[in-house]
Predict the 3D structure of the following.
Amino acid sequence: MERGFEPKVHAVFVHTKNLKKSAGWYSRLLGLPFDEKEVRSPVYNVPVTGEVYMTIDDHAFDDEYQFKPAKTPVFNFCSDNLEQSHRWIKENNIPVTRPIEKHGNFGWFHIEDPDGNAVMICGNCTE
């Protein structure tokens, strides 16, 4: 029997308590256009580029769901200049929850979204 699905990731889900707030926050973080009128519960698909979708989900139709923020990253964003990205994050008052960790010319750091979910930014170190 064939398994019926491909060996690739289709989407990552970010769970939230406030769909409009999270949709706006991620859109600003990624420099994407945002129109609050386009946000309709239960999910908002962030218009990211690439093959993997990013879906923010408020679980509006799941009465039994209990929100718990992800304290370890379940996805990451890539940077061509990690130090520049880190400065931009700090200038925009986004909480950094783990400082830059470098291994050769590659590194990462963690930030926190409005719901307390950990998000990793990783990429090339130039300094």
Notes: DSSP finds two helices and seven strands in the chain. The mean pLDDT is 94.
